[in-house]
C-alpha cells in the first residue's frame, strides 16, 4: 500500500515537473510559494515552542552546514561553477546549447568508457606477461 502511494506521487511529481519545466517563470513562482509556506510553517512552529531568533539562526545554520545545503541552497553549485568558468546560467542558455552540451557530455562519457576498457585490456596483457 505504501509503495503504491509513493509510486503514485513519484509519477505525479514527474508529470508536474515536466510540464512546469517548459514554463520556468511559472515553475519559479509555484516553487517560491511552496518554499515560503514551508518557511512560514517552520517559523510559526518555532514561535509556538518559544524559540528565539538567535537560537533559530544558529540551529538553522548548523543544520544546513551539517547536511551540505548552506551554499548550494543560497548560491547553488551551478551558479558557482558557471561563475568560475564564466559561462551563461542554465536559464540563459538556449535549448540548442543545452542539447549540444548534453551530446558533448555523452561523447566524453563514451570516450572515458572506451579508455577504461583499453586500460583493462592492457592490465590483462601486463599480468599475462609477468
TrEMBL record:
Coiled coil: 98-129
Top-level taxonomic group: Bacteria
Alphabetically ordered keywords of this record: Coiled coil, Membrane, Transmembrane, Transmembrane helix
Statement: the UniProt record of this protein carries the keyword Transmembrane helix: yes
Regions that span the bilayer: 25-42, 54-76
Protein name per Swiss-Prot or TrEMBL: Uncharacterized protein
